[in-house]
Design goal:
The complex is a heterodimer of chains A (404) and B (162). Chain A has 404 residues and is mostly helical. Chain A has helices spanning 14-17, 61-65, 74-78, 85-100, 106-134, 138-159, 179-203, 207-213, 221-226, 232-236, 243-246, 267-290, 309-314, 316-327, 368-372, 376-380, 385-395, 399-403; strands spanning 21-25, 37-43, 46-53, 336-342, 347-353, 362-366. Chain A folds into 2 domains: 14-53, no CATH class; 61-301 and 330-403, Cytochrome-c3 Hydrogenase, chain B, CATH 1.10.645.10. Chain B contains 3 helices and 7 strands. The chains are: A mainly alpha (404), B alpha/beta (162). The A-B interface holds A 7-8, 54-55, 58, 60, 62-64, 66-67, 98, 223, 225-229, 239, 241, 246-247, 327-329, 335-338, 340, 347, 349, 351, 353, 357-359, 361-362, 364, 366, 370-372, 374-375, 403-404 and B 25-27, 51-55, 57, 59-60, 71, 73, 77, 80, 82, 84, 103-109, 112, 116, 125-126, 129-133, 140-141, 147-148, 160-162.
Chain lengths: 404, 162
Amino acid sequence: MKTINSEHHLDLTKEDEKVYSTLNLGPTHPATHGIFQNVLTMNGETIVATEQTIGYIHRAFEKIAERRPYYQITTLTDRLNYCSSPLNNIGWHLAVEKLLGVETNKRVDYMRIIVMELARIADHLVCNSVIGVDSGALTGFVYLFQEREKIYEIYEELCGARLTTNLGCVGGFDRDFSIVAIQKIREVMKGLPKVLHEFENLLMRNRIFMDRTINVGGITADRALNYGFSGPCLRAAGIDYDVRVQEPYSSYNDFDFIVPIGQNGDTYDRFCVRQTEMWESIKLVNNALENLPEGKFNTEVPAFYFPPKEDVYSKMEPLISHFKKVMGEIDIPAKEIYKAVEGANGELGFYVVADGGRTPYRLHFRRPGFIYYQAFPEMIAGQSLSDAILTMSSMNVIAGELDA
Amino acid sequence: MEYSILLQELKNKFDKSILSIDETADIPTVVISSTSVKEIISFLKEQQNFIFLTDLCGIHYPEQEKELGVIYHLHNLVDNKRLRLKTFVTKANPQIESIVSVFSGANWMERETFDFYGVDFVGHPNLIRILNVEYMDYHPMLKEYPLEDATRTDKDDRFFGR
């Protein structure tokens, strides 16, 4: 009998086949929540080796971005982690602002924090409720999805879209928060704690849930760092790395919030870290909304700020400038930057190389999910199939982010 | 840790491999020779606390003699300092030593760079395509492959860039 290394998948010989069996998990399997394949080599119920195949929804975003003006790339970022697209949008806007050297005003920063934290809540809601579903507890999922729906209604009020939001623009927002939007945010923030409590009552100290998740799919802090983990998955392993604290952007340093960390890096810890992060996000949104400074909802970035519509229709100069901006004929300094934001899954980075042209010369997305999903075989080696499913959903692997 | 001390130390230790240093960029950028990538990254990780490989990606400059570049973003989580390393190779000899044994996370990032740019990471345990199909016989992010069909005549791009 061959010993099978968890890193390398082997073609099984006739002799091995008596011991090991091969199981295809995916590409389209209801429990993988996305299109990617895992070929598992199993010894009875135990997983021995895993071979991952990704790229089923690769859409060549980095190549497309090399032909698109900067403001049109926002729509590409929507489709990375589509569970929290406003976060990606604003991350990209922050990257372009860093490239241009723009300082946004406080109101823009606070509005952004509200939207980003709402997106984080929506993302964690999906992830944590799905951990519940995969362990057999469907009830919590139904509770939480109602709240996510309400957050999507806020997006709708802010920008008109729900899933692929294309929210805001370089320099801030297209328009101010409407009264209805603020009302809706207040309502969600009022209702959410109750629902979260209810959800935690269902799962957090539930014996069955704890037995299913504790010591399942664990990873040590050392290995997690070595694999380039970031976000909740890294923090669950016990390392308090959060981009919001390490490199504060968008005035995050005005606020007081806790970065929760776990100890064992297992599925239960990831669940708890996300759960605590949601409470912190609620605090952040409430704080930002209460202290929302007066001012403009948009910093005037000359290269991206459109003239008023009525001037475009009636005057020559505004029309020309509007046309040039839409066509992307704007001055971008030739330099390269790396800008990271704390996405829902971890450090979402944008490495932009600009050569002064209308499009980036090279744009690379640092996609947290892509980087940490490669640790999956190591995390599930020696565990059962049902544990593998739980591990995967607690890592919040999203195919859009994985494949770009 | 100060950047100036770190860069000085790098210069002292790897004098021949450091080609240029740019301290004015948003993250201090060091261009290193492609033969000592692993050595320098191991040194940074073991002795300078650059324990986090943030990003690894490729770039293509067709007009340069060494066309292909690989860019490493390292992060010193202890002192919260970032560092960018760049290295360039020719398209005919795109060999760079793999750093998978230093950072396990480099595995897929190197595969991605190989997939899109054709950089050959020597010592990589499983250097195969990752996002594109296996039977693809070119590396699509190279600049000679235009995004749109180059034979198109109905669209004049002269006025609006690439």
